[in-house]
Design brief:
Blueprint: H1 3-22, H2 26-38, H3 40-63, H4 68-71, H5 73-97, H6 103-111, H7 114-127, H8 130-139, H9 150-178, H10 180-183, H11 186-209
Length: 212
């Protein structure tokens, strides 16, 4: 692969996914809540899980596998409804946390599982969102020069997205950690859970109502 030939596509792609990264969404909500209530270790698990999913989507798109999402309605619908169910379940769990009676019970619920639980949640949230796959199918190919190996170039481009997402996540985690003591107060935690849970359910509902 000619890295010189990839310089311009890398710069252009970095700008596109950079703007996407800065746009608040489901990933932002999950990272902020986990960093505020679950600590940095679990928050970084979520971040690395999200980036794992991003890298897999990018590699699959470059290899042509995720084209199935646009070519097959059945494949898309199966993944879409799995994502809807997962997001609704996760949002309801967050809303239920505000009914817990003691700080200790809430603390144990949020912190259970540590890094692995965070990574699993981040990975599943990303992989069960077919919109990420459709985004890569639509956006990634135009940035790959015709004479370059698609898989290698696609992974390289996706790595730019991963790096930008990780750097922005570090900012979010630092911000949430600064306010952690305040956010872990019972009243603040209930508000944070309510906002995040409602947002996650909203993303699930939007995914359910979005047509193929």
């Amino acid at each position: 692969m000619d890295l010189t030939a990839m310089a311009a596509p890398l710069a252009s792609f970095a700008l596109v996914v950079g703007l996407l990264t800065l746009t608040p969404g489901l990933d932002t909500a999950l990272i902020l809540r986990t960093a505020a209530l679950g600590g940095r270790r679990q928050a970084w698990g979520v971040v690395l899980g999200i980036q794992t999913g991003t890298l897999l989507w990018g590699a699959a798109s470059a290899a042509g596998l995720s084209v199935l999402l646009t070519a097959s309605r059945a494949a898309y619908e199966t993944l879409r409804w799995a994502g809807v169910c997962y997001l609704l379940w996760m949002g309801v769990q967050m809303l239920r946390n505000r009914h817990q009676e003691t700080d200790l019970a809430a603390e144990e619920t949020v912190n259970s599982g540590g890094w692995w639980a965070g990574w699993r949640r981040g990975t599943l949230t990303n992989l069960l969102n077919p919109k990420v796959g459709v985004f890569y199918v639509a956006v990634l190919p135009p940035f790959i020069p015709a004479d370059e190996p698609h898989l290698a170039a696609g992974v390289l481009l996706t790595s730019v997205h991963v790096v930008e997402g990780t750097l922005w996540s570090a900012v979010l985690i630092a911000f949430a950690h600064t306010l952690r003591n305040w956010l872990r107060r019972p009243a603040a935690r209930r508000v944070l859970d309510r906002i995040t849970g409602t947002a996650v359910i909203g993303f699930g509902a939007k995914l359910a109502l979005t047509d193929y």
